[in-house]
Design goal:
Blueprint (H helix, E strand, L loop, with lengths): L5 H4 L5 E5 H18 L2 E2 L9 H8 L6 E3 L2 H9 L4 E4 L8 H9 L3 E6 L2 H14 L3 E7 L13 H9 L5 E8 L10 H24 L6 E4 L2 H4 L10 E2 L9 H6 L9 E11 L4 E4 L3 H4 L16 E4 L4 E10 L4 E5 L15 E5 L3 H5 L4 E5 L5 E6 L5
Parallel strand pairs: 1-16, 2-9, 3-4, 4-5, 5-6, 6-7, 7-8, 8-9
Antiparallel strand pairs: 1-10, 10-11, 10-15, 11-14, 12-13, 12-15, 13-14, 16-17
The protein binds pyridoxal-5'-phosphate.
Pyridoxal-5'-phosphate binds next to loops.
Length: about 375
């Protein structure tokens, strides 16, 4: 077993590690893809919730971003980001907050998919005398919310937004079903389905007199699999910055690309059961079991040595709040490696967004596995 650098040894575990060179390579890959496709990148920052990661994701201090909470919008606005898409359907109770963001100069894009929300937006914008910009959410794959691109409701919602104070800026869609694709061909087809639905919906809005200049699509699997994005103006992707085991299972990255891991320490054994107990449970890794429905179930995470090399045959089979149980995978033969108490391990997570959310900071590793910086991250609403 590799002896860990002193600075990893001195970290109190569990601790969230971020491999900066892997992250940089992942970011470069998505920028190259956006360049090839001729679209602007509007990264989703819900994965990192960190200003330091955001600046590196954008490759500059500010730029267009996507967020999943108004708290993210506040936080990034405080750090100079002014072009923000809040990509979760707006509710009447959040409109005062949205107006506060507008008052501080944020170009805030709102998203909705129903007439009730549209009326609430119009009423709030008119009473405040503040312009609000809306993207209509399109359902491109039956995954969750959104308007049907061919449906009458699309036009009814757009009509409900007709007001001097509101602009129908366009459409957005997210092909969440791409997470269930398993082949490059099905991913490419899903990317085209996502593109076609958004472009068609935008065209229908334009045909009825709405400007709708923005056509926003994206998930990491479709963004990396699209053959072309004709008619699309921007690409939203989030988890690509770190990748995770779910993305490796989908086939859009390798395990070696995953930039996030949780450093943990062996605290004991149940040798008769073949268990090694570590001090990272679901509190450190999250309860996400996104690989359970994939061909390779990675339990609560893939087990690596302190240098990040996969320990073959091992998996985090089970997790309590602060205890993780490392064991041989079903079907593995041979003896588990000797992992004495005090051994440092790294657990690669199923879902980077969920695991990141359990931690207050990233311990940033350089190419030699040394901690060079600590970047805070935030959470909550
Ligand atoms: C609306 C929206 N856009 C973009 C994304 C980014 O998707 P991914 O993390 O697969 O890149 C998400 C993720 O959930 C999303 O909800």
């Amino acid at each position: 077993m590799t002896s860990p650098p002193d600075d990893l040894r001195s970290l109190e575990t569990p601790a969230l590690l971020l491999d900066a060179s892997r992250m940089e390579a992942n970011i470069e890959r998505m920028h190259a893809q956006a360049r090839r496709l001729g679209v602007r990148l509007r990264p989703h920052l819900k994965t990192s919730k960190s200003v330091e990661v955001a600046r590196r994701t954008l490759r500059q201090d500010i730029g267009p971003i996507t967020v999943s909470t108004l708290k993210e919008a506040d936080h990034f606005a405080e750090h100079g980001f002014t072009d923000i898409l809040y990509a979760v359907g707006i509710t009447p109770g959040k409109l005062d907050h949205a107006l506060r963001l507008r008052a501080r100069g944020v170009e805030l894009g709102l998203v909705l998919d129903n007439v009730d929300a549209a009326r609430a937006v119009v009423s709030a914008a008119e009473s405040a005398g503040v312009r609000l910009s809306v993207l209509l959410e399109i359902d491109c794959d039956g995954h969750r919310s959104g308007l049907q691109p061919e449906g009458d409701e699309l036009l009814a919602v757009a009509d409900a937004l007709r007001s001097h104070w509101v602009s129908v800026a366009g459409v957005m869609t997210h092909a969440g079903e791409s997470y269930n694709c398993r082949t490059p061909e099905s991913l490419c087809a899903m990317a085209e389905q996502e593109r076609a639905a958004a472009v068609r919906a935008a065209q229908r809005l334009r045909d009825t007199g709405h400007a709708a200049p923005v056509v926003s699509v994206g998930s990491t699997p479709t963004a990396l699999s699209a053959a072309q994005l004709d008619g699309v103006t921007e690409l939203r992707a989030g988890v690509f910055v770190f990748f995770d085991l779910v993305m490796a299972g989908v086939g859009v990255c390798a395990v070696q690309d995953i930039a996030l891991s949780v450093l943990t320490t062996v605290i004991g054994h149940q040798r008769d059961k073949g268990w090694t107990i570590v001090d990272a449970g679901w509190m450190a890794l999250s309860r996400d079991r996104g690989t359970a429905s994939q061909p390779v179930d990675q339990g609560y995470g893939l087990v690596c040595d302190v240098a990040g090399r996969v320990l073959p045959g091992l998996v985090m089979a089970s997790a309590n709040q602060e205890h993780g149980i490392v064991a041989l995978r079903d079907g593995s033969t041979g003896a588990p490696p000797e992992l004495p108490v005090g051994t440092l391990l790294r657990i690669v997570p199923n879902h980077a967004c969920a695991t990141g959310a359990q931690h207050a900071q990233y311990h940033v590793l350089d190419g030699r596995g040394r901690v060079t910086e600590r970047w805070p991250r935030f959470s909550g609403w």
